[in-house]
């Protein structure tokens, strides 16, 4: 039985995730060595060593999630503590949180920092998937089917937005929207919910106008249209990202040879790591990242479509959408397709909370895939065993006649 289970795991997903994380580790060292010394007065390998530890811990978490049966997460015994911990963590930010990047997003635990909003993404996926899977018969009823997921999604988005971290709030809202679209909710109800969402966003923008329309955030939108109009101020980040991407060309300048990471690019090992990859490794480095992330997203969607269990299907689609949406926002911001939001690139950017949450999500995705593959193989074997006795009986009957 154990051999059958081990054979049922999707090792292609595991290999791609490991390769992407190791590639990110190399690029973090290359991108952060100057920043660590100049800006923080740390050793040149400071962020590399920390990310190496993050990968080891994330690997352990991934293994636990890959072994733990995902169907157990649908129970109230799992969901209730998860909801309490996530909401408690987000509320604790306003008492014990630490400001970083103009947002109250971090809680210090000893020498480490945790970002609760990262884990809130996965909690939304699990909670919404479980509720919709349990209440398929009442999925179009507001009181029984739609109210619980709407309340939880809205509360999480609000708590993250008022930190203020609008980039993460947008990602969580988009993830929730994807699960709603995939759950089987009536289209007319979805249109009504969308109109209601627009009204809520308008009200929030009025109530929190000082935070939303702060000078820093307005600069991100003005510099988005033409970063070179104010290259030394509001357009500084994006302009230097353009320089890095343009300098790389097809082959790149070579690993470790980036010029923009020498104090020009802000946060080269987190938000703008793709710019350093483009400058040093050219189209080949960027292509590897894009193909790897695309494979994980498309494979996850395929698993979701293949899974017959509604809970597992929504989990796979939600996790895939999370990785895809976050990748698009990071890559789009660094390349000027959309305004900058300060979102890390999955598996590649530096960050313990992000990598830990992504590894946990990937463990769940691999677990769903294992169940799908195992059930298919087990079903085929049962059918073969059922055919064999029937043939033996008919043969013996004919022989007796």
Automatic annotation (TrEMBL):
Its record classes its membrane topology as: Multi-pass membrane protein
Q: Which GO terms describe its biological process?
A: cell division; peptidoglycan biosynthetic process; regulation of cell shape
> What Pfam families is this protein classified in?
FTSW_RODA_SPOVE (PF01098)
One GO cellular-component annotation of the UniProt record comes to: plasma membrane
Alphabetically sorted, this entry's keywords are: Cell shape, Glycosyltransferase, Membrane, Peptidoglycan synthesis, Transferase, Transmembrane, Transmembrane helix
Cell compartments where the protein resides: Membrane
Q: Where are the transmembrane segments?
A: 12-33, 53-71, 78-96, 150-177, 189-208, 281-302, 314-334, 354-374
What EC number(s) does the entry state?
A: 2.4.99.28
* Recorded catalytic activity of this chain's protein: [GlcNAc-(1->4)-Mur2Ac(oyl-L-Ala-gamma-D-Glu-L-Lys-D-Ala-D-Ala)](n)-di-trans,octa-cis-undecaprenyl diphosphate + beta-D-GlcNAc-(1->4)-Mur2Ac(oyl-L-Ala-gamma-D-Glu-L-Lys-D-Ala-D-Ala)-di-trans,octa-cis-undecaprenyl diphosphate = [GlcNAc-(1->4)-Mur2Ac(oyl-L-Ala-gamma-D-Glu-L-Lys-D-Ala-D-Ala)](n+1)-di-trans,octa-cis-undecaprenyl diphosphate + di-trans,octa-cis-undecaprenyl diphosphate + H(+)
GO MF terms, alphabetically ordered: lipid-linked peptidoglycan transporter activity; peptidoglycan glycosyltransferase activity
Q: Coiled-coil stretches, from where to where?
A: none
Question: Which superkingdom?
Answer: Bacteria
Q: Which InterPro entries match?
A: Cell_cycle_FtsW-rel_CS (IPR018365), FtsW/RodA (IPR001182)
According to its UniProt entry, the function of this protein is described as: Peptidoglycan polymerase that is essential for cell division.
Q: Which family does it belong to?
A: Belongs to the SEDS family. FtsW subfamily.
PANTHER family the UniProt entry points to: CELL CYCLE PROTEIN (PTHR30474), PEPTIDOGLYCAN GLYCOSYLTRANSFERASE FTSW-RELATED (PTHR30474:SF2)
Name of protein: Probable peptidoglycan glycosyltransferase FtsW
Q: Which organism is it from?
A: Mesobacillus zeae
């Amino acid at each position: 039985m154990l051999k059958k289970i081990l054979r049922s795991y999707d090792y292609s997903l595991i290999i791609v995730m490991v390769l992407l994380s190791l590639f990110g580790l190399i690029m973090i060292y290359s991108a952060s060595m100057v920043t660590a010394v100049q800006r923080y007065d740390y050793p040149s390998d400071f962020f590399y060593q920390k990310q190496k530890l993050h990968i080891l811990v994330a690997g352990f978490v991934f293994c636990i999630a890959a072994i733990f049966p995902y169907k157990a997460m649908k129970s109230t015994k799992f969901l209730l503590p998860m909801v309490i911990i996530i909401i408690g963590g987000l509320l604790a930010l306003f008492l014990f949180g630490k400001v970083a990047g103009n947002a109250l997003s971090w809680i210090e635990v000893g020498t480490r920092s945790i970002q609760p909003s990262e884990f809130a993404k996965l909690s939304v996926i699990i909670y919404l998937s479980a509720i919709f899977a349990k209440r398929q018969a009442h999925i179009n009823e507001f009181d029984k089917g739609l109210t619980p997921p709407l309340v939880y999604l809205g509360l999480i988005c609000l708590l993250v937005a008022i930190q203020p971290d609008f980039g993460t709030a947008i990602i969580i809202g988009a993830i929730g929207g994807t699960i709603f679209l995939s759950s089987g909710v009536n289209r007319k109800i979805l249109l009504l919910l969308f109109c209601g969402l627009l009204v809520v966003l308008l009200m929030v923008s009025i109530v929190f106008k000082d935070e939303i329309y702060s000078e820093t955030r307005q600069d991100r939108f003005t510099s988005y249209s033409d970063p070179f109009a104010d290259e030394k101020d509001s357009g500084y980040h994006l302009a230097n990202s353009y320089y890095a991407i343009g300098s790389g060309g097809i082959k790149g300048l070579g690993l470790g040879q980036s010029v923009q990471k020498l104090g020009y690019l802000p946060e080269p090992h987190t938000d703008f790591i793709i710019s350093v990859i483009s400058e040093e490794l050219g189209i080949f480095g960027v292509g590897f990242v894009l193909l790897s992330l695309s494979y994980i997203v498309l494979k996850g969607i395929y698993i979701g479509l293949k899974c017959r269990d509604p809970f597992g299907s929504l989990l796979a689609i939600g996790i895939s959408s999370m990785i895809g949406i976050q990748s698009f926002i990071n890559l789009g911001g660094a390349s000027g397709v959309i305004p900058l939001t300060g979102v890390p690139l999955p598996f590649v950017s530096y960050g313990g909370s992000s990598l830990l949450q992504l590894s946990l999500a990937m463990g769940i995705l691999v677990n769903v895939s294992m169940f799908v593959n195992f059930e298919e193989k087990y079903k085929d074997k049962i059918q073969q065993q059922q055919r064999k006795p029937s043939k033996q009986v008919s043969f013996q009957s004919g022989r007796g006649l």
